[in-house]
């Protein structure tokens, strides 16, 4: 099984990235990246999964259950927090874009059918997590405690150049009520360039003794994907001069939707150093309009 999917290797039909539970060899999490040309349109059946349509660049309209949601979107993932649309399972969904763009479809197999609805950018809690060289920005647009889904958990993380995120390394591959949740996770990456030079970073996943023994040390670039079925994941390292973005998509078997993690015992002490350090002054790189957090 390949856990690092380089850009261009995971596409299918209209999708630049198409990770399904079947292709990942797990049960719940999925991700599609949909590029659309000007006046482009794409229709799909949501099937047994709930989906969030999230603009990465550009704006679009999303139609589902006879409702139409106009998403203002953004120029790119580093310039603004975006609005989004939630579409339920067993729906016919159409995404159209007058000017074109790229749109993430973050999905999870689910049991309940929730209503289609719009998620305003101003309601997205923007969190500055960590401190010092571990500072990063987390846009909690569909975190477990901020937005109602059946199984899907999804957030965006922006890491300034030279910083480490997903650190200390952590895992969520065991069901331990109140302590750790079993969640499959997808990382999708983008980077800022510098004077025409594309950005890059590094992603580590190490075996935890559970599941498949996933072991990854990957150089990641624009459009790359890393699958995390189990294991300690982190750090995600942004090389100096290039900011790193990743979209995290998570889901798992528990009926109780929760993000509960365990830190790697060798590195958990790092969290205790954060109160004595300032947050990286470059953050936030972008903010939600009239942000509530």
TrEMBL record:
<protein>
    <submittedName>
        <fullName>5-deoxy-glucuronate isomerase</fullName>
        <ecNumber>5.3.1.30</ecNumber>
    </submittedName>
</protein>
<dbReference type="InterPro" id="IPR014710">
    <property type="entry name" value="RmlC-like_jellyroll"/>
</dbReference>
<dbReference type="Pfam" id="PF04962">
    <property type="entry name" value="KduI"/>
</dbReference>
<keyword id="KW-0413">Isomerase</keyword>
<dbReference type="InterPro" id="IPR021120">
    <property type="entry name" value="KduI/IolB_isomerase"/>
</dbReference>
<dbReference type="InterPro" id="IPR011051">
    <property type="entry name" value="RmlC_Cupin_sf"/>
</dbReference>
<dbReference type="GO" id="GO:0102482">
    <property type="term" value="F:5-deoxy-D-glucuronate isomerase activity"/>
</dbReference>
<dbReference type="InterPro" id="IPR024203">
    <property type="entry name" value="Deoxy-glucuronate_isom_IolB"/>
</dbReference>
């Amino acid at each position: 099984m390949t856990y690092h999917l380089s850009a261009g290797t995971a596409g299918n039909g209209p999708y630049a990235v198409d990770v399904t539970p079947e292709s990942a060899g797990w049960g719940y999490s999925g991700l599609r990246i949909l590029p659309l040309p000007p006046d482009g349109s794409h229709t799909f059946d949501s099937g047994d999964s709930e989906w969030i349509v999230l603009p990465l660049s550009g704006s679009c309209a999303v139609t589902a259950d006879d409702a139409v949601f106009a998403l203002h979107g953004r120029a790119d993932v580093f310039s603004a927090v975006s609005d989004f649309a939630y579409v339920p399972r067993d729906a016919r969904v159409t995404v159209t874009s007058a000017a074109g763009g790229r749109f993430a479809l973050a999905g999870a197999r689910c049991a309940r059918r929730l209503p289609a609805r719009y998620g305003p950018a101003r309601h997205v809690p923007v969190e500055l997590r960590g401190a010092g060289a571990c500072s990063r920005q987390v846009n909690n647009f569909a975190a477990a405690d901020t937005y109602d889904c059946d199984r899907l958990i999804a957030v965006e993380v922006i890491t300034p150049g030279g910083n480490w995120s997903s650190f200390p390394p952590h895992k969520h591959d065991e069901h331990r009520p109140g302590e750790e949740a079993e969640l499959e996770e997808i990382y999708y990456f983008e980077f800022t360039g510098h004077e025409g030079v594309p950005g890059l970073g590094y992603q580590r996943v190490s075996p935890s003794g559970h599941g498949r023994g996933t072991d990854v040390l990957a150089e990641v670039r624009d459009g790359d994907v890393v699958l995390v079925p189990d294991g300690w994941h982190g750090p995600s390292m942004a090389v100096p001069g290039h900011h790193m973005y990743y979209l995290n998509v998570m889901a798992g078997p528990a009926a109780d939707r929760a993000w509960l993690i365990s830190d790697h015992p060798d590195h958990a002490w790092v969290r205790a150093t954060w109160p004595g350090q300032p947050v990286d002054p470059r953050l936030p790189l972008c903010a939600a309009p009239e942000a509530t957090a």
